[in-house]
Amino acid sequence: MRSLLVPVTGTEADLTALTTALKIARDFSAHIDALHVRLDAVDVAVKTASGQGGPLVEHLIQQLEQDAHERETRARRTFEDFCNRENVPRVDMPGSEQAVSPSAQWHVETGDEPGTVASHGMLADLVVCARSPDNHFTTRLILESALLNTGRPLLIPGAVGTDPEFTGGTVAIAWKPTPQAARAITAAMPLLARAKDVVVMTVEEEDSIRKADGLMRNRLARSAREYRAPFFEGARSCEDLARRGREKSKPSRHGWIWA
After folding, report:
1. pTM of the entire predicted model
2. What fold does the segment set 1-162 form as a domain?
3. Cβ-based neighbour number of residue 77 at 10 Å
4. Which residues neighbour 208 within 8 Å (Cβ) at sequence distance 6 or greater?
């Protein structure tokens, strides 16, 4: 695991994502790519104010440019302060030789945020993206794009303001029998191999259940308990499992907790 992509958006969630990524990078001597996608103000303004007249479009472009500049400045300051505090060297591009310590780079592109994150996420070993406290719309789109469009594992840290930890405790896998899910699990094997518990959650579909059972038996099986996640309550069941914790989950037929 050599390359970690961290989308930074200029919100307070950036520090949580960078701190979590550094914990992983130190274990694997990996490189952190802090990617900030700057809004294309002209493109957004033209699409938003189409047919509204030149003065309105011009004013909207100026406002969007100012907002984009402020977001980029906040994100860059967070990144620079973080690297200085943690003594992480900044490099433009990691070398081809095996690194002995983590490194980081600041990376800016202009365009569509979810699409840009997805295109770069395909080339990373892991994407680390934190949720914003106010559930910002752009952050949700980035998370969704990283999850659905990269085929890479996505690590979502805990709440902003808490000390992010990944010490090989419990890992949850939302499983669906697709090539993208299989690739993401394969890419995440360095992390999964360190976990004490691996929780596999799937909806109540026999094909999903059979393939998930075979996957875990062949790759990570040690012992198992089951957890039911019916098709029409999949999201609610996953939230309930996370809330109640492993020790309180009830055995049933459709899901797995591996220890």
Report:
1. 0.75
2. Rossmann fold (3.40.50)
3. 12
4. 175, 176, 177, 202
